[in-house]
Design brief:
Blueprint: H1 3-23, H2 29-33, H3 39-45, H4 47-52, H5 56-80, H6 84-91, H7 96-115
Amino acid sequence: MDLDKAVGAHADWKVKLRVAIANHQTIDAEKLSSDCQCELGLWLKGEGRGAHGSSPSFGACVEAHSSFHRAAGAVARAINSGDYAGAERQLDAGSPFAEASSAVAVAVRRLKREALPV
C-alpha cells in the first residue's frame, strides 16, 4: 500500500468537491460516506489490519479515515441538495471536513512512520 498516494487521493477530494459545487454536479454521497470504498479503506479493513492492527497508531488512522469519509459525505449531500453555499462553508478552514482531512493525513503519516519504518 502506497500510503503517500492514499493521503494524496484523500486530499484530492477537496478539489473534486469544489468542482462539483462550481459545476452543480452530483456526487455519490453514499459511496463517499463509506470508509471502505477507497483503496486506503480496503487496506485498513484487510491487509493493513492484519499486518498493523496492533500498532497504537493504527486505530487512530482507522478513526480519522472514517471521520473523513463521514465529513466528505456530508459535503456531497449538501451539493446534491443544491446547497452550494453550505457545501462551500463545509470545506472552509476549521470545518469538520477540513479538520478530518488534516487528521487523516497526520494519522496516515504517523502510521507510516510507526508501522512501516524505512
